[in-house]
Amino acid sequence: MSTTRQEKVANLLQQEFAKIFQKQSKDLLKGILITVTEVRVTVDFSIAKIYLSIFPTDHGEAIFKEIQAQKSDYRKKLGLQLKNQLRIIPDLIFYLDETFEKMDKIQQDLDGKAHNPIA
């Protein structure tokens, strides 16, 4: 169970990452949408787990690897943006959130069975 402070910091980080990825999408990643689905912060605020959803999914793995490779740059950007709000900028751990992909696959499977009741 997270504290109110953890939730506030997680929301703040989620908003900042949304801005960062939105700017990147306009400048570098034309046609690719990166969504920050969730951010979880440890009790001591030393680690932030950031869950990302990348659309279209066919480029997801490559973009995710690039994001992980630039982890220190993202932390530096956060430090500059949040220096007056956070004393310590947490280490960042990125996760690829595949929830929407799994939901889409299930929906496609269900649609396929609805059209083909014998299968």
Which features would summarize this protein structure in a list?
119 residues; 3-stranded mixed β-sheet; globular; alpha+beta; 53% helix; 4 helices
How would you describe this protein?
The protein is α+β, with helices and mostly antiparallel strands and 119 residues long. It contains 4 helices and 3 strands. A hairpin with a 5-residue loop joins strand 1 (33-41) and strand 2 (47-55). The longest helix is centred in the first third of the chain and has 24 residues, at 4-27. The mean pLDDT is 86.
Short description:
By secondary structure, this protein is an alpha+beta fold. It has 4 helices and 3 strands.
Q: How does the helix and strand content classify structurally?
A: alpha+beta
Question: Describe the biggest sheet?
Answer: 3 strands, mixed
Number of helices: 4
CA gyration radius, whole angstroms: 17 Å
Mean pLDDT: 86
DSSP, total strands: 3
| Apparent shape | globular
Distance between the termini: 43 Å
H/E element order = HEEHHEH
Strands across the major sheet, in which order? Answer: 1-2-3
Q: Helical residue percent?
A: 40-55%
List low-pLDDT spans: none
Strand content: 15-25%
Element layout with pairings:
Elements: H1 4-27, E1 33-41, E2 47-55, H2 60-69, H3 71-82, E3 91-96, H4 99-115
Parallel strand pairs: 2-3
Antiparallel strand pairs: 1-2
